[in-house]
Amino acid sequence: MQNLDDLIRSLAKLPAEEQKNAQDLIASTTSLAWIASVGPQTAAYFSPADVLLYGGQGGGGKTDLGLGLAFTAHQRSLILRRQYTDLASIIERAIEINGTRDGFNGSPPPKLNTNDGRLIRFGANRLLGDEQSWQGQPFDLKVFDEACQFLEAQIKFHLGWLRSTAAGQRVRALLATNPPLSAEGDFIIGMFRPWLDVTHHNPAKHGELRYFVTAPDGTDLEVDGPEPVEMGGRTLKPLSRTFIPAKLSDNPYLIGTNYQAQLDALPEPLRSAIRDGNFMLSRQDDQYQVIPTDWIRQAMARWGEKAPEGVGMSSIAADVALGGQDATVYARRHGHWFDSLVSEKGKDTVDPLSIASRLLALMRDGCAIVIDMGGGYGSGVYSHLHNNVQGLTLHGFNGANSSKRGTRDGKLRFANKRAEAWWKFREALEPNLGEPVALPPDQELLSDLTTPRWKLTQSGILIESKDDIRKRLGRSPDKGDAVVMAWAFGEDSVSARIRVASNPRGMPKVNLGYSNLKRRRA
Predict the structure, then answer these.
(1) Does pTM surpass 0.90?
(2) Which domains does the chain carry?
(3) Segment 218-255, tens digit of pLDDT
(4) What is the CA radius of gyration of the chain?
(5) Peptide bond before 109: cis, by omega within 30 degrees of 0?
């Protein structure tokens, strides 16, 4: 890296006109409180993206970029961390850039009125719902420092209130972060899939703009460009996103220090996340995680877009939501292969009759239908099908019911049916001992299946409740629950249909392609 004397000598060697241009540029920055470092930080500063993901490695200048934008490019900024205790160093750096404590008020939430009239507020969203305290407050810049520590629902709520009434003022969001260390942060992969997911069909270059709208079901949908699109009877204006990676070597203030050695000394997965900036492989499984992440990834790697030839649908499971923020999810199982999940927002599935009709439309081959009865949301759907449709193989799943089964090795029992279903799916996924389960590549499904924790009680293995999962994940694990239910009953359905197909009394034969199927029982 060049020192100041080297730079002065280099400047002196330039032609007179270029020297003058350089001097004019330098003079134009003397009034700025902050200047971006040459490289990715400058590219991020000038990026036109509405939503920018910036970061990766530790020491890349992520937090400083957010402060720099607030001090030089925006009028009203909100800088957020998940907890208030994490704001101290950010506030100290902000006061340093400001050059004085004048204009700073530390009363929660802290705020700084800069020398040139800008407002910077500092906040935290520790619990789901804390983000709503910022509703209606206009900010033209929102910075989520260590964004992977937030819940997806918190970030999406904040983005909905990002705006400015000042003429000509640009509006944007910065997600500054290292890669996720737990399932709760996995949403970042789905949100920026074209840049982060190596399996994406159309990968994006660093800094390249891609455009997204929120589909009627609440999911992100990539569109071709910035032009408005018609969807669900409404005209939607796409917002742009991009990802610009940051490395320690890009930061002239840290590259000459001992910080690299500190990163090298980190244990895994911190080393992969903070030193290497690896978004896809960095997070660590909790020691009480029910299903290891690698087992889910292996199942997703086995998946193909079409069901195995000759294999009929063995079960369809519905995790029912009647209104609210949760989704009604349908999981369709064909033997070991699961079709892409069908997810419909709860606000669009408020009628049990319509959900029952949807189930009948999606089912094939006379397969078993499984309905989640926990909380009573699925009772109306179950009753309608049971009372009005003949010949169905219908199962109501209530996770609170008792279990009479045990683990594959026979050493442990289950506290209830929910624990049994989840653990049996875990056993099915276990490499070399389980089944060749094939799951659709779905980032939300990956998070759903890898979030639940377990503990051993006097009654046996107990899986944490959906309410506890919701507090950590920011939403209900609807996709994961639907897949687990489809697996729990699908095997019995397949075996029963094979018995019918081979019945010597002339029952209809059904070719399911399961001649070598072996049922596994604990």
Answers:
(1) no
(2) 31-275 (3.40.50.300), 293-501 (3.30.420.240)
(3) 678 889 999 999 887 889 999 999 999 987 666 555 55
(4) 27
(5) yes
